[in-house]
Amino acid sequence: MRFASTRNPSLDVGFEEAVFRGLAPDGGLYHPKSHPDLRPLFEQLEPAAFDETAARLIEALFPELPQPEELARQAFEFAPALTEPVKSPDGEISILELFHGPSCAFKDFGASFLATVMERFLHARNERAVILTATSGDTGSAVAQAFHRKENIDVVVLYPAGRVSPLQEKQLTTLGDNIVALEVDGSFDDCQRMVKEAFVDPELTSRITLSSANSINLGRLLPQSFYYVWAWAQVRARSGERAAAPDRLHFCVPSGNFGNLTAGVLAWKWGLPVDGFIAATNRNDVVPEYLKSGLFSPRPSVATYSNAMDVGNPSNFERLEAIFDRDWRKMSSVISEEVVSDEQTLETIRRVYEKTGAILDPHTAVGYLASERFLAAHRGARIISLATAHPGKFVEVVERTIGVRPELPPALSRLLELPKHSIPVANTLAALSTFLLDRYG
Ligand SMILES: *Cc1c(COP(=O)(O)O)cnc(C)c1O
To answer: pLDDT, tens digit, for every residue of 72-97?
Structure first.
């Protein structure tokens, strides 16, 4: 597979180069230059352990990577889980739990794969690199955990001061070793802009090997397609429709920067027979607006309870545009949209808990309500609704809503005892450059 900038298809590179550059030199995002036809693989796929399915996909997508089975085992020591569907007269919803990794959020899949391949590539080249990453909460903690104590790699995480949950802050600021947390006086969009500017700054890039680990990085984006394929194979096996594809299947994806959704749409583009996707957002609804009107108007993000989705200018929109030839009607024929308010998010957490005892985190709740609305409008559909974080990561909101404190996974509760180490910085490229050159230049 070759990868080209979303802004200039003539600049193409291989996977290793795309992984280390993060962003293309013209400021665009790397994107598959052509799409493989994986239908034969999907047709033969047996429902299997997640790392086995992942190994098959690694083999098919990156034939240049040696030992795909071992790579998949190393990267995915944790796995997704698909719940039994909740059936209603309208159809059914299953939940794809993506929070069983070290930071208890779906970003562990992409981060861990990226960390594993980067360590291998750097080892082979006998080089060092600095990973620069902006986070609105979960990316940074997944990246920090995935890269902690990897050889030859330092990680600098930028996060918006006061805009991540206390637990997320602990996840970013307590690891130490090769992980540094910069506390930015600004919003997530500021953090993201600073990182983007650093990558095209000639002085910085000539003195430090900088690399990204955001959802803009292909090494994070592409492995996120694996669990769509894995879940599809599980559903096909469960429904007894061995020969055919499961009918009327949609994935519902709580979205912010749209990396998760883009990965699912890529699997569809490679031939995964699903009927469509539902982009579920909070009030930061730039993409839903585009899907309805064809008008894309990025704007400053607003703070919500599902704060990992508070993105006003989603970077992966460029990739979605590339997949659908910049035709919003094509895009909206495959991707439906639902927008969920904070009040509706809390109401959903409360209602689902009272009805079933299941506790949803605010991001998952946005997706769940979107799934229910979609079912009501499309009777007989089957939905796989992605659960993107463990409810224990958002104790404050959840406890206030249902009066019950969700249990924190032990891997996370341990962090609350540890002291925070962060470095405050202004929301400018100059502040970031000074820090980076002092420390690694
Ligand atoms: C990052 C994140 C999202 C949004 O994912 P994108 O790929 O940015 O659209 C949703 N839920 C949680 C818990 C997240 O951490």
So the answer is: 999 999 999 999 998 888 889 999 99
Contact (Cβ atoms closer than 8 angstroms) between residue 325 and residue 364: no
**In Å, how far from its chain's centre is CA 189?**
16
CB 304 within 8 A of CB 363: no
Q: Ligand 1 — pocket residues by CB below 6 A?
A: 105, 107, 138-139, 215, 254-261, 308-309, 363, 388-389
Phi, psi of 279 (to 5 degrees): -90, 115
- Residue of the CA atom closest to atom 2 of ligand 1: 308
Residue 291, pLDDT score: 98
Does residue 11 lie within any of the structural domains? no
Taking 70 as the pLDDT cut, the residues of the chain under it are 138, 240-245
3-state class (DSSP) for residue 200:
coil
Query: Can you point out the beta strands (E) in 368-432?
Result: 381-387, 423-426
CATH number, residue 279: 3.40.50.1100
Give the C-alpha separation, 9 to 4, whole Å: 5
The boundaries of the domain holding residue 292 are 84-105+220-411
Residues 6+ apart with CB under 8 A from 287: 255, 258, 279, 281, 296, 314, 317, 320, 337
Q: Which residues are catalytic?
A: 107
Do 206 and 225 fall into the same domain? no
